[in-house]
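Figure 2 data, in text form.
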Amino acid sequence: MEKAAGSPSVGSSYPQKNAEILSSQYGINLFLAGLLLTFAWAVHAVGISKSHLLSYLITLMLIQVLWMLWYLCRSCTQRRLIQEKDTHAGARWLKCGITLFAVITLILDSFKIGYYIDFAKCLSPTEGIFPVTHAVHTILQVKKNYCLCVQIPAIITLFSRFGVIHSVFTNLLLWTNGVLTESKHQLNEHKERLITLGFGNITIVLDDHAPQCNCTTTTLCSIFSQGIYYLYPFNIEYHILASTMLYVLWKNIGRQVEHHQQHKTPFKFQGITVGMILGLIVLTSTIAIVVVYLIQIGRSKIKSESALTMFYLHAIFVLALMCTAGIVGLLIYRLEDRSLDNSKNPARKLDGELLVGTAAGSWILSWGSILAIICAQAHPAYTWYNLPYSVLVIIEKYIQNLFIIESIHREQEKGNDDIKTLRIVSISRGSTLSLSPLYKEIYNRRAACDNGEVPCLVRGSVCGRENDAGGGGKAETSQEKSSVMHSGSDFSFYSRNSATNSKRRILKNIAAFLFLCNLSLWIPPAFGCRPEYDNGLEEIVFGFEPWIIVVNLAMPFSIFYRMHSAASLFEVNYKT
């Protein structure tokens, strides 16, 4: 009987596993086909144009839109399909990040539509259809992400798996297209900057994708063309965040929701003043450095060298501070005796994998710079600052990954409830320890007990002992002796708790500081401040085209790493 009872659950797992394998293979083939089409357009393959790539992406988005409309309509008509919320399927930072970047992506789509209207005479119709389709896709996808943060019913598991995995790889292809489009736009600018630094031997003809006709309104065309490429970093982040959240949802389809009480702790800025102040100083100085860098770079050789030197010195100082903060946090964890949360959590597992995986992008660039410095025959003065900068980038990510991964795997403390309980028990036992203002009111209610306004629920409480004065002084003396015996253990508990609170306060300040530092380090590469392009040493050693390809592939992962780390550190600060 026991075997028969267990057999249905075993048999039911096979269709789920098969659906996962089938849908994953479908998604991978979908992605590889789009990736090869993107590559063919990038290298100007015969018979492949941008309109072919955009047509493929439009088709994928329309299929996803139809699936999302079907799911939303089915959810509205059959409310019972939306069951218990799966707390692992939608992290807070993913929802907030997707919403913010989706709004900016819609602004980008409106700029593209305006740009197409101004150059409609010489642009393919697909370049006008694409932003309209993308805007509809973005709106529905954000709506669907909130609706899908639930356990999907088993009766539509197979169809849901194919729909969600289609959405994952559609967003990855849109991300790839955004990266390639932004990279093509920036290559000419970086070539001009390298020429000002004296690297005149870089002779390569880059693509000019400007429309071959005149704009109807010159001012608007200039605004649209410049605004599009300033907004692309947000569009890139949006698609990688969306694909991340959809992947978590795909992994959770058919998974049983774990029933456990969720402790919601409101986020407070109290106790993180030091970390916030230091982090805001770093953020403000980084914004100033980026502004000066973008103004100075490419103007002349002297100004370009001073801009690179300024960037490296500032980054070295910030990275050194982050390494120190991370080491202090890890040392505190070594001194603590707290158990780890080893429960199955797909979102937490994905967070750790993304941290290590996306950090590889920066590590590739750093090792490339280190190798170029070692192998180069000539070393301009500013390139020597690149060496400690590259080394610190590797070390800082290594330390920060350890800190974040250990933080998200630690169980929340329940010390506050224990403190309240102990204090109340100490009062009931007649302890003469000084209490915080929050618990002195228990003593102040003594008069109310005497007047009978408050019932005495605990035997041997303050009012009980006072009302039982008829028992004689001998009982009072024994109770006083008992309270003195308890006071020693109470003091030891309070000292341990004080040390624990101090550690928690330090960890919260570290998390707040690292959060703002990661936001600060996200800004330079996202807005065009990329010394990996501009210092020229790597291009001489590896060649212009190979190094540019490496940077274009690795930089998006580096940018995403900073945003993902900032979001993870916000969660660490919230839970600490």
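Caption note: Residues 16-255 form one domain.
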